[in-house]
Amino acid sequence: MRQILAALAFTATLAATAPARADYYVEYYRDNLFLGLAYHRIGCLTNWATVQSNQEYDGFTTSDYCFAGTSSDSVPSGSWFDYQYLSSSFSAAQSKLDSCGAQTNNKYGTQGYTARSSTCSYNIVTNCNSDCWMRYFSTCVGHRVSTASTCFGYSYP
Amino acid sequence: MKRPSLPTVAACAALAGALALWAWTARSRAAERPATAAAPTAAPPLPNGRPAAPPGPDAPHPTIAEPTMPPLTPAWRRTITAQVATGPRPGAAAFRAMADLYVDHNADFARAQAEAERITVAEVRELTHLGLLVLATQRVPEVEDVLGHDLDDAARAELTALMHASNDDFKRDLRALVAAGRPEDERWQLIRATEARYLDRFAAIAGLDPDQLDALLGGNILLPGAPIAGAPTPSPTDPVDHHDSPAEPPRPSRP
């Protein structure tokens, strides 16, 4: 019996000392409007296997795309197009995205991820649309994703 | 030789299992996270470009290209303005010219999208116009400028819902036609019916007449007096980068 207990204790020690793998990412998706080349872009916090939070990082819409626990190789109505490694710490990863989300919302007058800006008039070529929001947000996170809008008037920060 | 007792066998089995588990997880971790000393290697990509395995912090980032809107140069705007000036709907015509320019500038993406959905490039062109048109009509502040009064909250919510419902219904129906092997002309009927239905509902919700819709489409983007007419000419080396541009463009005004 002592030998069994010793083996179990050794197993528990191994399990405790072997670090669990945990890497977190922001993964970017695009919702294709009417199957053409017009998109809305979204970022979700993932661990590459599943979405980790219900918070979608996007601007100028209140639609829901990120659902915690769902597969991260796509999101509802969206197709994957880019990513950025964040951290091996969930809280650090989430904090980074929330901070950049808040900065971007402040820049575009979409505090609280609102569908409508309080400071600029939505326009698909000037610096007031969801592409420009995503350009600013992804730059803040550390890897600027490619977007369609020319975003005339864009500046960072 | 003394035969081992049953508890000893069980203990050895547990120990061997634990060691095997530890070795396996350690090897998996090493395989998934590139060593800092070794040259990082990217996992083979899936068809959409997403690496199959989680890329570690040092993994090289794949080059990902996305469609881009070409600069609407003053010369291009002058040409288009002259072309559409005498037509019945200059705003809509100018808007379509912009959508066509966008598709032409991203021809490879248009072909890839057509292949992926098993439709024609001409359909992708039309659907891109429809997507941009819907986005343009969702610019509530500009709709209100054209109307001369604010929309109430119910109307704004209805406009948003209209966009999502139209988009979702259309995707489902077009893909069903493709899956059923229906001919291209049936797909075009669906495309045109969807656009007509969207614009009818949009006009009913927002209260815009056809002239006002035309002003909304053309006036804010393309025609003389549009806000970007005064925007700086992009640098040829970086046509989409404007980090040094100081501020928001002026609020759009009616032509």
Overview of the molecule:
The complex is a heterodimer of chains A (157) and B (255). The termini of chain A are far apart. In chain A, strand 3 (74-75) and strand 4 (78-87) form a beta hairpin. Mean pLDDT of chain A is 86; it is low at 14-19. By secondary structure, chain A is α+β, with helices and mostly antiparallel strands. Chain A has helices spanning 2-17, 90-108, 130-141; strands spanning 24-33, 38-46, 74-75, 78-87. In chain A, helix 2 packs across helix 3. Chain A is globular and about 75 Å long. Chain A has one domain (21-141). Chain B is mainly alpha-helical. Chain B contains 9 helices and no strands. The termini of chain B are far apart. The chains are: A alpha+beta (157), B mainly alpha (255). At the A-B interface, helix 1, strand 1 and strand 4 of A face helix 1, helix 4, helix 5, helix 6 and helix 7 of B.
